[in-house]
DNA sequence: ACTGGCACTCGCTACTTACGAGTGCCAAGC
DNA sequence: GCTTGGCACTCGTAAGTAGCGAGTGCCAGT
């Protein structure tokens, strides 16, 4: 498959023009807007080859060409030049993130920032508990048979949950329980907690065993099984930009997918070390999102990764710009977390 | 304005048919589908009057009639028969809400339930802090200059926030601080807290005064100013039902409004004692939502109200059904909270 | 290998026509 | 005096037609 330099150049031009205008691009317009140094007829021949190879496509016989998912993929992998952030963007990021008081605050600001900068739907995963360690476990007696357990992770995540005890406990008992769980679990990675829990019960004094038993069940539920992961979402209104043309006619499936936390996690949470990842249309595993693209990156203090963030938009998307923004925001957030 | 019984009956029929079919309803169809006992011509005369009074409207000269906001209002106020919940709905509510472990859990389940039952966008406000009392304030030392303050309200709300202290404190100091704040603030209504805070600082020992000072600033910020109120949202995908016909062409403004927590609060949070409230189209204060209707109710244990919940949908909405559902869900949630 | 020329395709717009649902009005009837 | 059947009228929608033009593929010439 002979894709010489000019053909690649033509593909790049098609992608750029189509992204900018949202209209199928023809040979004549291409030659006019880019300095390709050849005639429309030549471009047409190149386009015919590109179409044969599946990189572009005609919506109807007598229309211009539109990139296919495969075309975007090639563009992203080999043709897109890195687009440095504008000064304004850098400033926006800093202004937005400075003054966050809280992990919650950081996450919310970040997700809104991302949505605003990319003009797309933004998703930010909270630092994953499975990649966090227990900093402290606090037990707050609410009544003699009720405890509020608060887990504070080194990533700043805080989870709390009410525990209904089978037997009443006294104040001193709570102190006991608190000391025990912190001794055993403090500093541990969340993912290492489950096997330790049984020991927790075994080693506690007989009188406290029932209490410790329910307590540890709840701990497991809360920390490992249930809201293990959380996400924040913003910018759904951006889906309506560009008419209903993107997303093959209906926002329905997209909105439905975005309602499911599980799906968002799958989308944004499966980050591999330090790479920015782009999923284009069909490459997406979720059926409802086959007409969308995702750009995601991992973030975390230093070079470790504690969570993912990214955006979702039409396949017809400004990839270079979006990738640059997502990457930059991920880095800023990582730095911010490192300061704690 | 002579709106005799038959005219009202005609209006009701128009609303019901239009809601069901989404199409302007004509005199002939009306007579066929409802037993009005009169001829189409008579109905036409009635419709002319109803139109003159502003209750209905013709999209175009030669089309049937469509209710106006005013028409829906009259319908809701005087014409709609209460529609009892189906057995299936009752069961759904119970099944959905049983087994909630947590306030967060309750709110999330509720909002999804509401969205599913009404097939509309659902909004649930967390129990308002301003209507809550402090049950307990926990201070967890993270380092010598850092505290995690956790506030547990009687409504189940839990708020936490990291505090950066100006001076290092020892473990005993934290115990002191904890005792003091709980003595002064425990059991107080959140709305009564601000005036008490100054006393808190004044009465603490000189050594702890700087720490107490920042602590109380943060308390004020967290409890009163900042996330004072929170909301959960679900069912945005339901906006796409019925084409883009509802909402005068674009989902844009709606989605934008739903992104703003402040707006959601205004929408759902301003509940007055025990009444279910319906806002139709223009009655809505938020410009972006002028083409939508809101049905909301307050909820809380017993007859007190701690928060609001409701749904948002097209003005062309099944009001009786929606009202019944919102009311029922509010009651169930209230009962659930009462059990704590 | 590139280019200009050319016939061809086909979606889009504009225009016309036909249809029919729905109306308002009026004169007749209960 | 309300109700009713009749009837002319309006007007949005659907279907059909024509012309335009962007864009193409192909071919012969350089």
Query: Any idea what the shape of chain A is?
Result: elongated
Helix/strand order of chain A, N-terminal first: HHHEEHHHEEEEHHHEHHEEEH
| Biggest interface pair, counts | A-B, 32 and 32 residues
Number of extended strands of chain A: 10
Distance between the termini of chain A: 53 Å
- Percent helix of chain A, as a range, is 40-55%
Mean pLDDT of chain A: 90
Biggest β-sheet strands, sense, barrel of chain A: 5 strands, antiparallel
Radius of gyration of chain A: 26 Å
- Structural class call of chain A reads alpha+beta
Oligomeric category: homodimer
Hey, roughly how much beta strand do the residues of chain A contain?
15-25%
Describe the structure.
Two copies of one chain form a homodimer. Chain A is an alpha+beta fold. In chain A, 46% of the residues lie in helices and 17% in strands. Chain A has twelve helices and ten strands. In chain A, strands 7-3-10-9-8 form a five-stranded antiparallel β-sheet, with helices on both faces. In chain A, strand 4 (134-143) and strand 5 form a beta hairpin. Chain A starts with a helix and ends with a helix. Chains A and B meet through strand 4, strand 5, strand 6 and helix 10 of A and strand 4, strand 5, strand 6 and helix 10 of B. Chain A binds a DNA duplex (30 and 30 nucleotides) through helix 2 and helix 3.
List keywords for this structure.
homodimer, 340 residues, alpha+beta, 5-stranded antiparallel sheet, 3-stranded antiparallel sheet, 12 helices, 10 strands, 17% strand, elongated, DNA-binding
